[in-house]
Amino acid sequence: MLCLSFTLLLALVVGTGLGAAVPQDALKKSCSLSKYRFLVPHELKAVQKMKEHFEDTMLLSGRKCNTRLFHRKWSTPELSVPDRVMLVEAELDLAIAVLGLPAAPRLTELRQRPLAFLTQAREDLRGCVATEAPSHQPSGKLRHWLQRLQVAKETAAGCLEASATLHLFQVLSDLRCAALREQCA
Length: 185
Prior knowledge:
This is Interferon lambda-3-like. This protein is mainly alpha-helical. The protein is built from eight helices and no strands.
């Protein structure tokens, strides 16, 4: 009986000591995107409401933009899992930058929930990049698209907002695909 108590006490002390030896940040930085496999309906509804308001505003202003920035000849499931994560991270960076731009009060209000959701998703993705593929180099397909995105950021500022806002559901679909990992088809 004494031996069993001593063994339990030893296990408790060793377990506590190991827990203290592992930095808490290391535990928090693991890659867990499972919550993005199935997006919550109220998040999707908030994005839809914001997108519709933006489209109405564009129609009223008569502004026309080429929104083919997000057009690709390949689909997200064709990419490797690390490429998918890099793709979504770039898309989220752009979407968050656009949603953070000054806007009319009503649009600013409608942007708050999607902005918070996308910002959290980006932070979760960054944890994945840091832990799973810190030195991953993008495939040729993705590298070409990332270069096009960078050029568009530098040259098409006026239409960038329209393109990013109108394609938020594609970004969310890509996020879901990254979360599904090898199961995304």
